[in-house]
User: What shape does this take?
Amino acid sequence: MKPLTTEQIRAVIAKGKFRDNLFKAVGVFCLAFALLVIVALIADMLIKGSERFTLDFFLNFASRRATQAGILSAWVGSLLVMLVTALAAVPLGVAAGLYLEEYAKRNWITNIIEINITNLAAVPSIVYGLLALGIFVYQFGFGQSILSAGLTLALLILPIIIVATREAIRAIPAMIREGSMAVGATRWQTCRYHIIPYAMPGILTGVIIGLARAIGETAPIITIGALTFIAFLPPVPFSEIDGGATAGMFDWVMSPFTVMPIQIFNWTSRPDPAFEINAAAAGFVLMAMVLSMNAVAIYLRYKMRKNIKW
Amino acid sequence: MQIHDTPALKAEARNLNFYYSEKQALKSINMPIYDKKVTALIGPSGCGKSTYLRSFNRMHDLYPGNRYEGEIRFFPDNTNLLSPDVDPIEVRMRIGMVFQKPNPFPKTIFENVAYGLRVRGENNKRTLDDKVEHALKGAAIWDEVKDRLQDMAPNLSGGQQQRLCIARALATDPELLLFDEPTSALDPIATGAIEELVHELKKRVTILIVTHNMQQAARVSDYTAYMYLGEMIEFGKTDQIFIKPNDKRTEDYITGRMG
Assistant: This one.
């Protein structure tokens, strides 16, 4: 083959550059489209719901009159359910991930477990609802409570946390592990002093992404029987309840509840169009909750990673 | 009766074989490690010197499928380090290791050195302070870090990191210190500092060092072993190995005709 002349070389480069720019344009367009959709969605809810953004909206219970209906029971319910979910899913998920990465021998049993965890992440959420209805609500007798909902969502996000934990652990170089073992540390000491702290930013990110998913879940919560109309809050620990008795520390977990997505669903299905405003406003609030959770995840990851390098 | 210029034994490999799953990496190695001396392991890449070194503190136990045969006797108590009855953690508590690439933990300088002590249950602040200082002095890095013990270790230079790793190993008073090509990631000045340190350290501890660099072996070691394809070809005093090797293969390697 003859060597290319300068003109030919330039022609080849020009052709390559054109493709470069073409792909850049397509990429920017796709990105802009995706961003536009989400911005439009949020803006739409914001504008539609704007007249409901008053303090009352956050402090009122649901009501038959749209203008007086608020999301108090819904956002309190969502927060409490998330609390139970996190308390149940984080220790289980982190321990499972840690075990699989640091302790389990590689054999066919762990392979099956791994495949199953991946599959669990793909199970439709309504199926978790059905499972929870049978086990938590009826078998364990937790009823249609915050506890049942929290545990259901914990099951739902368990695979997310396990996978995030494992990936965070795998990113730790082998030489750190060897350095720890070489001074005579046990596996657990290595996990406690090194693996868990260094994996924490990744684990935390996974946890919050999981919780952000859980907070928007509707189907499994409806399945286990969350209320759509509720005009009281779960009992505050040690507060006075009806009949002069004092609420116990954990009485709230057995309380009936509703959550944000159910409240929204309920309002959109009302015939009175005024409730659509409520739904839009609540949708915006839910969106804000999810986005701020993600923001917290990003911030924490940045902050914790600053000191971890090898 | 001991011949008077033969020092006491610290360890001895006896008919040591090692397998990564099916693949045999070490072939019936017999070799003495003398007390408070520096023994260098040289040989071309893949000859098994690191594999051999990592047998001493049972590092291979961390990964599945690895298998030892034979013995490494450890003195004065004549323990077989490779015996299934001997806990690898006990072995690692007695034998320190410094790795090829400096591997400080992403913690403070102080915590890096104190780690071995914490693992042994030591939490007394005074004791930790004393031992950390002593170890850092032993690793010739105290003057450079004494004012910033709470700084993060990974912010140190490569040479400082490696000396910190040596301090980490020294803090627990090991009887034998394993060096796995400790200077291969360092510049010549940092390398010089480490070599000087090795020379200093042999007063207190027995040293086994793997090196790619033959000048380094000649400079720092009292005894040298040449390994090739998983076999111990020749072991002897460093002077003898470098000046008048007995085996043709050793001579070829040392004179640069091979490897």
Notes: Chain A has a mean pLDDT of 92.
